[in-house]
Amino acid sequence: MVEDRRLQNCIYTVEQLIRYVDLSHDEQNQLEKVTKIHPMRISPYYASLIDWNDPKDPIRKMAVPSVEELCLDGSYDTSGESENTKMPGLQHKYRQTALIIATNQCATYCRHCFRKRLVGLPSREIIQRFEDAARYIAEHREINNVLISGGDPFVLSTDILERLLVALANIRHIRFVRLGSRVPVTLPSRFDDDLLSVLQNYSLSEKRLHIVTQFNHPMEITKQSVKAVDSLIKAGVILSNQTVLLKGINDNPRVLANLMQSLVSIGVNPYYVFQCRPVKRVIAHFQVPICEGVRIVENAKKRCNGLSKRFRYVMSHETGKIEILGILGNNVYFKYHQAKDTRNLGKIFTRKVDAKAGWLDDFDSKEQSCLLVE
Asked: Is the CATH number 3.20.20.70 carried by domain 82-307?
């Protein structure tokens, strides 16, 4: 874990929360139920970005529990992670990529988290013996990159992170390593000299280090987060961003375009905009229907320059990473950007427009025509 001082004043309880926001007795009881199932943690820095007088504040919506989390629609494993787990903490879904779940902790527990089933909770899904995972990766020469995720790997101590990176650097067929993290957004002070030195040592090797951030709203781009981004760039790290399309937060073309252009201006490359997954206790609160999402994304791109419109609108389905290409006539067009079954790679297919559908499985699968570029 990071040093206690970095997270010692986090908001963990409803009792602490009511110092910032008025809640009725009934609301307090309901949020107590939520936080017993899915814990709350809001870092002091991230809490400082919230306008506590605005119930619709986007940072507040992402960080503060809601009674809508009592809705049980959806699933806790929407992308088939359990079936792709080779050992605790190691997944191998796509041929060239291994995924390591390094921790179940984060600096702030996002309420839209797609791994809500394990974040902040006791879990057997995180890595137990990294040596075993490294051995699996070394034995599978088709794996050429590793994604370290969680939870958030930058909540781990710098010593542990260094051990992970050194072990992966010694596997010859690994070309690069990615770390997925919200810490540049929620705890930018984490990037101290010791950590930056470790990242720089790794990034200056032949195997360039990538950090994939998750900025979801322009309000998250602050002096502190820009300083963290600058320090990472100076350390030789390549930064990309994955945004989640979230109802009431960035489901507005102007907001989304502003976010993408702001990211480019600070040196972070827009990578994906993810369709919010139909996660239990998330879907009712945050998911935007796909057809509406297409219109939001396309109208945002109209406001973007060439660099800021490079991102793809995708969903992480159990069958693969599916790009949502657009709508033509009565059809929504999709393409397999990544696929568990490699025969699906590059396949383009359609579904009939359904204004309510928020996930591929919500469309009528009978209305499908497949096109394959040979």
From this structure: yes
